[in-house]
Design a protein that fits this description.
About 5% of the residues lie in helices and about 40% in strands. It is mainly beta. The strands form 5 sheets. Strands 1-2-3-4 form a 4-stranded antiparallel sheet, with no helix packed on it.
Length: about 325
């Protein structure tokens, strides 16, 4: 990780000035379902997202943005396109990516997981593409790695990837209408079918923690945190809830105060959900990266579900490890 000097620089030069001087949204245009990665190769942060703004969530490519200060973001271009020859099994609907960096030999490999419409099955399936660089070019595996719902319903979308720091093993999570998790094989391009586990948190309502989609997993101080989105992505009420576990495949105990992030109509902040989380290297400072509905498109006839923008705010914890409610900012 980082030595003490680097840690001080991160806290002083990156964390405090950039977030206090920056404003939300952090990316230009319409983007959603943001995934953030810190690359040890580049020393930069990278955001991958659903390209928004088209009817029916019809975007067919993924952009990657990079920053060394979490404030100024550069569009590094399209890193994967689901139309044409780059991804032969998908025809479009490039949605909700996840990425992980792994040290391999003298360099790094980047495994990029995503969902797309699969004409063979006439439904969404999940694939993976690999690169030596976080900005690509990426090479698709050539076929999807998740094609079926373990509960017989719901979409195979909203993928997340996680390395368990305790065991060193890698896990994949996904699901709309259900939450599933499984161990990845050592190649990180296939899952151990026998480990597929239905993890859907039970109960709740649209006012608190009823699971809809977008699982996200991270580990802190011996606890596995599971986050998910509640309600519909076009609803102002779309929000983030969470639970915890002592195992990367659950079971999940829903938090007593489960809502992490929710709209603030007084500030014209709506539909705050589908998040990822980043721990600043060498620190116990955390950020939540999420999308919200652009305030000028909140009316149903304007398509709020496809006019979303990416934001970053602080994620903080109480002394007992519970998550403090996030204050969404402008």
């Amino acid at each position: 990780m980082k030595n003490l000097l680097t840690r001080a620089l991160l806290l002083g030069a990156i964390m405090i000035p950039s977030l206090s001087q920056a404003s939300n949204p952090v990316l230009p245009g319409f983007h959603a379902d943001p995934e953030i990665l810190y690359s040890n190769k580049t020393g930069k942060y990278h955001i991958y997202s659903t390209t928004d703004g088209t009817p029916g969530w019809g975007g067919h490519y993924f952009h990657v943005f990079s920053s060394d200060n979490l404030k100024d973001w550069t569009d590094d271009g399209i890193m994967l396109d689901l139309k044409g020859d780059q991804v032969k099994w998908a025809s479009g609907n490039a949605w909700a990516p996840a990425i992980i960096e792994r040290k391999e030999g003298n360099g790094y490999k980047y495994y990029f997981y995503f969902s797309g419409h699969n004409p063979e099955f006439n439904r969404k399936t999940i694939g993976v593409a690999v690169s030596d660089d976080p900005s690509g070019p990426f090479t698709d595996l050539g076929h999807p790695i998740v094609t079926d719902s373990p509960v017989g319903r719901g979409q195979q979308i909203d993928v997340d990837v996680f390395q368990d720091p305790v065991s060193g093993k890698y896990f994949l999570y996904w699901g709309n209408g259900y939450m599933a998790g499984a161990k990845l094989n050592d190649d990180l391009t296939s899952i151990k079918q026998e480990t597929i586990t239905v993890m859907t948190p039970k109960g709740g309502t649209l006012q608190d923690y009823a699971y809809r989609e977008a699982p996200y997993v991270f580990f802190r101080n011996g606890t596995y945190y599971f986050m998910w989105s509640v309600d519909d992505t076009g609803s102002p009420n779309y929000h983030v809830a969470y639970g915890t576990s002592d195992n990367p495949l659950g079971p999940i105990k829903v938090a007593d105060q489960p809502i992490v992030l929710i709209q603030n109509p007084e500030k014209e902040i709506y539909g705050t959900a589908h998040n990822s989380v980043i721990q600043l290297p060498g620190t116990d400072e955390w950020l939540i990266v999420y999308h919200r509905i652009n305030k000028d498109y909140i009316e149903k006839e304007k398509g709020p579900g496809v006019h979303r923008e990416v934001c970053i705010d602080r994620l903080e914890f109480n002394p007992d490890g519970t998550i403090k409610p996030v204050v969404p900012t402008l």
